[in-house]
């Protein structure tokens, strides 16, 4: 048979397994059917329910606006799949083309998509993590439990970690007039994602809303009473606070443990893949039949010097799933690259925060529009003289403009035609915690608009 005949046979009778019944997994399955795949489709997930939306869990669900059970993802179409839920995958055999399940079953495949996502990082002492009143927020069950605890009116909530999730939870506590202490090891909230300047703004915002914000501190112990209920937290400096609810918001762990013996390039940062979402093996070779999408994918981005980037972003999961699914059932010449510019959003303390691009890939930042004291501004990020990202506080209407600047490798600081441009647009060091892992490389711009046409072309550095 010719390669075209083999592809047609696969599209008609092939076996595709999706490991990870997630947002990315569901959108990929829908795309497979839309692309004309009529073979067998199996969805494997460790949770009992079908895929649901996670961003509302730390937003609308905790406020009580949306019941956790109402977060099920809408179906764009029927996918005619076999659902194997409630049992996680615990191995991948690339030689025999089988997915091993924790209950001993083996699921054969011709091609597999891995979209296992991340899980919440638990508190480091298991007995303390098990105390009544200690929570993480990742699943519907987590959100339901924390929502009930907040509705009961705790005397104080301790949030450990001031990233986006921790900051959103602190915001919800203040909306409910619940006293809240936020403990953050870094110098300010959001500093690991957005840098020191934005971190100072976030810190002022929290304190202005009555948050007891403690930065540069470490929680060392969660203390319970004789009934196993949380009562107190101990800090490294010897101080304590009384609290009956603690939320551990220390980020996520990518679900790659089950691939340890698979031969794939999988680790704590995710599963390495090419821009076509094909997984790499331990030798760095591209696999033919293993694809990756969503939070667990570690994908190179040409705009960011081909660095392998893992993104816990809703839009990235959807778009990457579409590219992966298309490529699974397409000939080599018809495959698409995943070249999406990341987009992220958060609502906290009455402020809508949105970002485009990768702020951590920057050495300078400048406020280009609006007023920082009014918490209504846009800040642009640059690396070696070109725009790489932008963040807006209550000023998101301009982000499409900054997306175009990123895609065209526009010079930094960017010329800004806005009427609210600050009088003194002075860039400052972006100042992320930890070492800066930036390297010199080619400057590229994204060309084309249709996913099948998106390509990159080299551009000269701005001097």
UniProtKB/TrEMBL annotation:
Classification via SUPFAM superfamilies: FAD/NAD(P)-binding domain, FAD/NAD-linked reductases, dimerisation (C-terminal) domain
What is the required cofactor set for this protein? FAD
Kindly state which keywords UniProt assigns to this record, in alphabetical order.
Answer: FAD, Flavoprotein, Oxidoreductase
Q: Give residue ranges for domain FAD/NAD(P)-binding.
A: 15-321
Domain of life from the UniProt record: Bacteria
Entry-linked InterPro entries: FAD-oxidoreductase/Apoptosis, FAD/NAD-bd_sf, FAD/NAD-binding_dom, FAD/NAD-linked_Rdtase_dimer_sf, Reductase_C
Start and end residues of each Reductase C-terminal domain: 344-415
Give the matching PANTHER family.
Answer: APOPTOSIS-INDUCING FACTOR 1, RIESKE DOMAIN-CONTAINING PROTEIN-RELATED
Listed name of the protein:
NAD(P)/FAD-dependent oxidoreductase
Look up and give the organism this protein is from.
Streptomyces celluloflavus
């Amino acid at each position: 048979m010719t390669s075209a005949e083999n592809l047609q046979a696969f599209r008609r009778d092939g076996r595709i397994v999706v490991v990870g019944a997630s947002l990315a997994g569901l959108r990929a399955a829908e795309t497979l059917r839309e692309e004309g795949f009529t073979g067998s489709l199996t969805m494997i997930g460790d949770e009992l329910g079908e895929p649901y939306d996670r961003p509302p869990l730390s937003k609308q669900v905790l406020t009580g606006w949306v019941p956790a059970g109402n977060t099920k993802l809408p179906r764009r179409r029927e996918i005619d799949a076999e659902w194997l839920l409630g049992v996680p995958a615990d191995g991948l055999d690339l030689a025999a083309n089988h997915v091993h399940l924790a209950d001993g079953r083996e699921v054969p495949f011709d091609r597999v998509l891995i979209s296992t996502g991340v899980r919440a990082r638990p508190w480091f002492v298991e007995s303390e993590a098990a105390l009544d009143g200690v929570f993480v927020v990742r699943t519907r069950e987590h959100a339901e439990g924390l929502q009930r605890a907040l509705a009961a009116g705790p005397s104080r909530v301790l949030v450990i970690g001031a990233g986006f999730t921790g900051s959103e939870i602190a915001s919800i506590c203040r909306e409910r007039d619940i006293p809240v202490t936020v403990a953050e090891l870094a110098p300010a909230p959001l500093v690991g994602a957005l840098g020191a300047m934005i971190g100072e703004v976030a810190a002022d915002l929290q304190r202005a809303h009555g948050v007891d914000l403690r930065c540069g501190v470490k929680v060392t112990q969660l203390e319970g009473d004789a009934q196993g209920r949380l009562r107190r937290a101990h800090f490294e400096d010897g101080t304590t606070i009384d609290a009956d609810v603690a939320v551990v918001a220390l980020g996520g762990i990518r679900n790659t443990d089950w691939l340890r013996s698979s031969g794939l390039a999988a680790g704590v940062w995710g599963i390495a893949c090419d821009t076509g979402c094909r997984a790499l093996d331990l030798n760095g070779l591209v696999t033919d039949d293993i694809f990756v999408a969503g939070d667990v994918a570690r994908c190179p981005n040409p705009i960011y010097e081909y660095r392998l980037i893992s993104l816990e972003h809703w839009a990235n999961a959807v778009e990457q799933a579409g590219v992966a699914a298309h490529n699974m059932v397409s000939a080599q010449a018809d495959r698409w690259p995943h070249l999406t510019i990341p987009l992220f959003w958060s609502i906290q303390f009455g402020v809508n925060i949105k970002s485009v691009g990768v702020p951590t890939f920057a050495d300078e930042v400048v406020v280009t529009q609006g007023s920082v004291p009014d918490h209504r501004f846009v800040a642009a990020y640059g690396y070696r003289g070109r725009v790489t990202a932008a963040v807006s506080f209550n000023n998101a209407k301009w982000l499409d403009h900054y997306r175009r600047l990123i895609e065209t490798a526009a010079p930094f600081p960017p010329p800004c035609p806005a009427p609210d441009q600050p009088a003194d647009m002075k860039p400052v060091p972006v100042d992320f915690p930890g070492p800066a892992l930036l390297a010199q490389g080619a400057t590229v711009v994204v060309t084309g608009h249709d996913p099948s046409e998106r390509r990159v072309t080299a551009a000269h550095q701005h001097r």
